[in-house]
């Protein structure tokens, strides 16, 4: 793997040389300036610190003390973000101990995909990432900060904060998580109730009781979806205080780790340790993040988000890089939906620290990288603990305490990772193979074409899908309607698969960070709205999805296929997603967005 790791990294480095060089030049130019409070006009400085206590104002202006900017995604709609309500005061008090000052530079929007799934608001979800990036830039554009702490956890929020922070790559930055909620209803049981509801075997009261038992308190949802994959990747990139990812919001250790983030970010502002985020996040760090994602069977959404994150640092990656690394990265974790454990059980078994240690020692990750702590990536191979006042880190046992959840690199669940590239006459897509049973790795069945997820749900209700078929759900890409997740399709498709039918989905949209056991070729590019071949598929065409060969094809005579035109949406369908729930304001993003494989970026 070491050879493959180096080959992929070197290809990325060569491909990115011009853009990465230009990015680093911009960072150096920004870092060479006189600090903001000394450089700006007096009126600017007075405005910046007008509301500060006099003593803090004296420190930052006269004593030239470091000033930390907080960018927070606090709100009360996201269970994972509600605990952030008191974080600024904790951070401010800790900073004062080091003679530093703190200002909340700004807030960023943070929407909950769990609330908007299947609703019109979900069509704002993917683009909210770039809104968050822009909001982060607005917050930091006040330009009076020596470092930044970034408070965010969930799906689009972490990638957005990271993209925004990388535009200020001259600043030392540390991400400060809040942790997962305590374990509630088992995720597998929750899914069974959803399937029963889809079949009409239970009603809304039973379903609501089940969902409320699963999502019941402060913290991230406990399945290993996009939010918790974010935390795994930040650990692997060295952007957290080591071991901070999966500690409960109300655990005393959480407060200690939050206070430690202040010490760490200040340490990175010192001349002898100056470590800005833009310099730290290089090609090797991006590759380490991908490897960590693959080794844990993480969210498919990061095949989009981390492409965008890399671009923000001048680094160009694509799905072929994910695919090459996936084929050579062992699967070390089984966490729902590719296992039964939740993230709390994953943490108890060793969590990110165990995974990173195994990947580093096995030669699957670059060890020679910088992190926010002086010890580098090796410090992320240990588990944090506290005696109530101070922090320390301890070694983990050599063997996994629960091999149903975590494995060593010498005896993995699988020799390859959890995400693969599929290619063929339909274009390029990704599939989360780690959650799909091996007897479903090849699906060949007639297509049933839908132009909206509601059409599929209605066909299911009418009993029209009791057969082998491949659901083709098109016009769901970023240009069409903002690329909402199609997570509500999982229960009915799971029901049909459970009845013994061969079922799969092919779409230019997204599924979920919790993509499950139904084979799903997603993010198909080019999308239908950009003239992609998915628009040529007709109901009845035989579709072959082959995970083993890495192919996705419509088995249609070549001449017939070439002669076919793209089936365009009617005006009523095309404009149905343009209005309501604020979607009008995102029209420019839909027009300008790049492909999913290019990160669905709207700012290039």
TrEMBL record:
Keyword annotations of the record: 4Fe-4S, Carbohydrate metabolism, Gluconate utilization, Iron, Iron-sulfur, Lyase, Metal-binding
A GO molecular function held by the record: metal ion binding
Coiled-coil residue windows: none
Matches recorded under PROSITE patterns: ILVD_EDD_1, ILVD_EDD_2
Amino-acid biosynthesis among keywords: no
A Pfam family reported for this protein in Swiss-Prot or TrEMBL: ILV_EDD_C
Enzyme Commission number(s) of this protein: 4.2.1.12
Required cofactor names: [4Fe-4S] cluster
Function comment: Catalyzes the dehydration of 6-phospho-D-gluconate to 2-dehydro-3-deoxy-6-phospho-D-gluconate.
Family statement: Belongs to the IlvD/Edd family.
Name by which UniProt lists this protein: Phosphogluconate dehydratase
Taxonomic lineage: Bacteria, Pseudomonadati, Pseudomonadota, Betaproteobacteria, Nitrosomonadales
Gene responsible for this protein: edd
């Amino acid at each position: 793997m070491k050879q493959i790791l180096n080959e992929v990294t070197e290809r990325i480095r060569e491909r990115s040389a011009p853009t990465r060089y230009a990015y680093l030049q911009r960072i150096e130019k920004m870092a060479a300036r006189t600090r903001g409070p000394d450089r700006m006009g007096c009126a600017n400085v007075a405005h910046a610190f007008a509301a500060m206590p006099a003593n803090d104002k004296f420190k930052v202006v006269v004593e030239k003390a470091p000033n930390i900017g907080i960018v927070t995604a606090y709100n009360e709609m996201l269970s994972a973000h509600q605990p952030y309500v008191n974080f600024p005061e904790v951070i401010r008090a800790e900073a004062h101990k080091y003679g530093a000052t703190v200002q909340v530079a700004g807030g960023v929007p943070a929407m909950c995909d769990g609330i908007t799934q299947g609703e019109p608001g979900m069509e704002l979800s993917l683009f909210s990432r770039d809104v968050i990036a822009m909001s982060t830039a607005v917050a930091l554009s006040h330009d009076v900060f020596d470092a930044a702490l970034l408070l965010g956890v969930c799906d689009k929020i972490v990638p957005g904060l990271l993209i925004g922070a990388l535009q200020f790559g001259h600043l030392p930055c540390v991400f400060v998580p809040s942790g997962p909620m305590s374990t509630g209803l088992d995720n597998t049981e929750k899914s069974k109730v959803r399937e029963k509801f889809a079949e009409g075997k239970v009603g809304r009261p039973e379903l609501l009781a089940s969902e409320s038992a699963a999502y019941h308190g402060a913290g991230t949802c406990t399945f290993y979806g996009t939010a918790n994959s974010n935390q795994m990747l930040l650990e692997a990139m060295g952007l957290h205080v080591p071991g901070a990812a999966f500690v409960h919001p109300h655990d005393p250790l959480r407060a200690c780790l939050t206070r430690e983030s202040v010490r760490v970010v200040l340490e990175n502002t010192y001349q002898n340790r100056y470590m800005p985020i833009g310099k730290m996040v290089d090609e090797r760090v991006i590759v380490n993040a991908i490897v960590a994602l693959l080794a844990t069977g993480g969210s498919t959404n990061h095949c989009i988000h981390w492409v965008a994150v890399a671009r923000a640092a001048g680094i160009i990656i694509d799905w072929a890089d994910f695919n090459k690394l996936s084929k050579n990265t062992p699967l070390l974790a089984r966490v729902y939906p590719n296992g039964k454990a939740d993230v709390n059980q994953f943490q108890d078994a060793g969590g990110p620290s165990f995974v990173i240690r195994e990947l580093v020692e096995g030669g699957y990750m670059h060890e020679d990288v910088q992190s926010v702590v002086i010890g580098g990536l090796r410090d992320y191979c240990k588990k944090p603990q506290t005696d109530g006042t101070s922090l320390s880190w301890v070694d983990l046992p050599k063997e996994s305490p629960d091999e149903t959840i975590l494995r060593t690199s010498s005896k993995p669940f699988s020799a390859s990772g959890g995400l693969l590239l599929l290619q063929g006459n339909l274009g390029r897509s990704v599939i989360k193979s780690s959650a799909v049973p091996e007897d479903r790795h090849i699906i060949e069945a007639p297509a049933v074409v839908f132009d909206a997820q509601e059409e599929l749900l209605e066909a299911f209700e009418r009993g029209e899908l009791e057969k082998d078929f491949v659901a083709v759900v098109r016009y769901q890409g970023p240009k069409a309607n903002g690329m909402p997740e199609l997570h509500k399709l999982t229960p009915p498709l799971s029901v049909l698969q459970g009845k013994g039918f061969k079922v799969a989905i092919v779409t230019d949209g997204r599924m979920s960070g919790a993509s499950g056991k139904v084979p799903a070729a997603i993010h198909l590019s080019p999308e239908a709205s950009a003239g992609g071949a998915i628009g040529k598929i007709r109901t009845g065409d035989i579709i072959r999805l082959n995970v083993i060969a890495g192919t996705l094809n419509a088995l249609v005579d070549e001449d017939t296929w070439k002669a076919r035109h793209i089936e365009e949406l009617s005006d009523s369908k095309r404009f149905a997603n343009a209005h309501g729930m604020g979607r009008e304001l995102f029209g420019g993003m839909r027009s300008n967005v790049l492909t999913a494989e290019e990160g669905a970026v709207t700012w290039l």
